[in-house]
Design brief:
The protein has eleven helices and 17 strands. By secondary structure, the chain is α/β, with parallel strands linked by helices. It has a domain of about 230 residues: 3-Layer(bba) Sandwich (FAD/NAD(P)-binding domain), CATH 3.50.50. Helix 1 packs parallel to helix 4, helix 1 packs parallel to helix 8 and helix 8 packs antiparallel against helix 9.
């Protein structure tokens, strides 16, 4: 029996929250979105839109508009600072005609946010939700603001307010939340000469230093203009300010040492405020639901961006949630189905990210030596490149060796 229309409250209007609100609204549910920021805007740096995320946007009818502002990616290239190639992963190694896209996060936000505003959902900005309280008859949840004002109630709560969500403490779900010691300093620059195209390019020096350049398409709000490149520098959180404090010229000289082609764009960096530090979070929990609450995106499974899956996993979360609710009679059954359906894919990427990150960002010097020797040798083994490309595309699940994840249809 199909799920009856529900009164849904969505907390957070980032990628996961906006996609969930849009999908649930289109499915006939009454949706209210609560966003902490008064005037949410297009912020952030470059992200990778993988085939999984593309499939969700295609089902929403948003893909063409998004990729028109993106840069097609054919591969991921990684080499040492001595110019020795560690690996090159070509999307063409996996059947299916897949490709990735480099995209400014703000450009994706603009499309999702505009769709939410026009889909019939109620959007309340500048509203912070600090607590969840069951109604007297236990038929719903009050959404409580910091001043203890109650909003709602809603039959279903979708928590999608990011990696630093405080609402995870409102349930008894087992969880582990810790900040990574490492993060990245990044900036988004114009690339008028189109020096950075077709590949995410990373250069490493041991495990302590890494510079990357991701072609990122058009910036948010731009009808035309030079394409963007997102530049990032790996750094421990307790060293980020000291690195920036050395002065812009020294910082830019170090970036050029890794990627000489950056010389053409780094002159745009004239203010230290252009170099933004982001620290990563690691969030582990299961299941991702109670009888009336479900966690999506980074609020449920934040991880290091080594595999470039954050936005794609968030979009898949939203799609599977809508499908799970449509397939079950009752909120609790639908949410249980959601956690069960997402478990294989999310468990794989959480494990793979935690295993992989120390080889690229850590204080373990020996891992850098082993990586520089082992990765090129491993890429020669039959099936390894194809497996790594499957992981890159977001299609891996379980051990990663089995059947690829089935992409959602409209």
């Amino acid at each position: 029996m199909p799920q009856r229309p529900l009164d849904v409250g969505v907390i957070g209007c980032g990628t996961a929250g906006a996609a969930a609100a849009l999908l649930l609204c289109r499915a006939g549910h009454k949706v209210t979105v609560y966003e902490r920021v008064e005037g949410p805007g297009a912020v952030g740096a470059g992200i990778m839109l993988q085939p999984t995320g593309q499939a969700v946007l295609r089902a929403l009818g948003l893909l063409d508009g998004v990729i028109a502002r993106a840069e097609p990616l054919e591969s991921l290239r990684c080499e040492t600072i001595q110019r020795r190639q560690l690996f090159k992963l070509d999307y063409g190694a996996l059947p299916g005609g897949h490709r990735g896209y480099g995209l400014h996060r703000g450009a994706l936000f603009e499309r999702l946010f505009a769709a939410v505003k026009s889909c019939g959902a109620t959007l309340r900005t500048g509203v912070e939700i600090d607590d969840l309280v069951a109604t007297e008859d236990n038929a719903g949840l009050w959404f409580v603001q910091p001043d203890r004002t109650r909003l709602g109630p809603h039959e279903l709560c979708v928590v999608a307010d990011g990696a630093r969500s405080r609402l995870r403490d409102d349930t008894s779900i087992r969880k582990a939340v810790r900040p990574y010691p490492w993060g990245a300093v990044w900036c988004v620059l114009d690339d008028p000469e189109a020096r950075f195209t077709r590949s995410l390019y990373q250069v490493l020096d041991g495990t302590r230093r890494m510079v990357g350049a991701l072609p990122s398409g058009l910036g948010p709000g731009e009808a035309a203009g030079p394409r963007k490149v997102s530049v990032f520098y790996s750094v421990r959180h307790d060293r980020a300010e000291a690195w920036k404090a050395r002065g812009l010229e020294r910082c830019k000289r170090e970036l050029r040492e890794f990627i000489p082609a950056l010389d053409a764009v780094l002159d745009q960096v004239v203010d230290p405020q252009q170099l933004v530090f982001t620290r990563y979070q690691d969030v582990a929990m299961y299941p991702w639901n109670t009888d009336r609450v479900v966690y999506l995106g980074d609020a449920a499974h934040a991880m290091s961006p080594q595999l470039g899956q954050g936005a794609n996993l968030a979009l898949l979360d939203a799609m599977v949630l809508a499908q799970s609710l449509a397939a079950e009679d009752g909120v609790a059954a639908g949410l249980t189905r959601y956690s069960r359906t997402r478990r294989s894919n999310l468990a794989f990427y959480s494990f793979a990210t935690r295993w992989l990150t120390p080889w690229f960002q850590s204080d373990h010097t020996a891992l850098g030596w082993l990586r520089d020797v082992g990765f090129p040798l491993g890429m020669r083994l039959p099936g390894v490149e194809r497996l790594m490309v499957k992981v890159m595309t977001g299609l891996a699940q379980g051990t990663g060796l089995g059947r690829p994840l089935a992409l959602p249809s409209e």
